[in-house]
Amino acid sequence: MTDAPSNAVAITSTPLPVEALGGHYRTDTGWPAPGEGRIGQLRYGWGLMLQSDDPRFADFDQSPGPVHSRSSGCWITWDRQYGKSGIVAVSNGRIGKSGYVEGYVPPRPDRTPTIAGFRFVTAQKVSRKNYDWVGLWVAEGNDQRTQIIGFNDTAHTVLANLPFRFGGMASLPDLHGVASHMTLIGEGRPGQPVPWLRLIWFTRPLDPQK
Predict the structure, then answer these.
(1) What percent of the chain has pLDDT over 70?
(2) Sign of the dihedral through C-alpha 105, 128, 86, 61
(3) Residues sharing a CB contact under 8 Å with residue 126, sequence separation 6 or more, in sequence order
(4) Inter-residue contact 51 to 194 (CB < 8 Å)
């Protein structure tokens, strides 16, 4: 089904404010206006709640651009509409091709930390002084909680706690700065809204006083 002809997948979106994720805006001047939206140690880029009546739009486990549905085997993609602070809406949902080059297998860490009450989902290789990977851990059972954790072979750091179950992530460095962008997609259940957002972190630790 991955390379099947494009079949319409109607998708709509509504904004997902940083406050819905347990974050906040600072009152001083920062980025984005009116201040720096942060969730834990990560800055908030943009967020949408995606909705679709198509049963294939669920159960996501990869998000390199298009998103992959485990249950249907489909890669689903859409067009993005940009505003001043990032993506503001989506349109033209459709079945697309794999988000990876043919034959590419995403790297996976040899070892992952054991986090009480959570299970490991996925991780991305990163270049940071204090950790080599950034990964997702979702709560055991059906609780709507995910932890984003930076880790290496000897230690780990919880970067953010989110009130949704996330199944896929992708990270890319900013070619024009010191930031890296992390795109997350919710696991998703048929007929329910699916969170899709971008968080940002920097090559140096964030100083909450600056």
Answers:
(1) 87
(2) positive
(3) 132, 133, 134, 150, 171, 180
(4) yes
Predicted local distance difference test score (pLDDT) of residue 85: 72
| Sequence-separated (6 or more) residues with CB below 8 Å from residue 72 | 1, 55, 56, 58, 59
Amino acid at 201: W
Q: How far apart are CA 27 and CA 156, in angstroms?
A: 30
Strand residues in 73-193 grouped as ranges (E): 75-83, 86-96, 118-125, 133-139, 146-151, 156-162, 166-173, 179-186
Q: Say how many C-beta atoms besides its own lie within 10 A of residue 106's C-beta.
A: 12
Q: What is the pTM of this model?
A: 0.86
Lookup result for tokens 């989902």: 121
Of the candidates 206, 135, 204, which has an alpha carbon nearest to the alpha carbon of residue 171? Answer: 135
- Bridge partners for 156 per DSSP: 151
- Say if CB 3 and CB 162 are below 8 A apart: no
Query: How many whole angstroms separate alpha carbon 26 and alpha carbon 36?
Result: 6
Beta strand 12-15 with 42-51: parallel, antiparallel or unpaired? antiparallel
Q: State which H helix or E strand residue 38 sits in.
A: strand 37-39
- Give the pair of three-digit tokens for residue 129: 């002084």
Return the pLDDT at 30.
66
User: 145 versus 5: which is more confidently predicted?
Assistant: 145
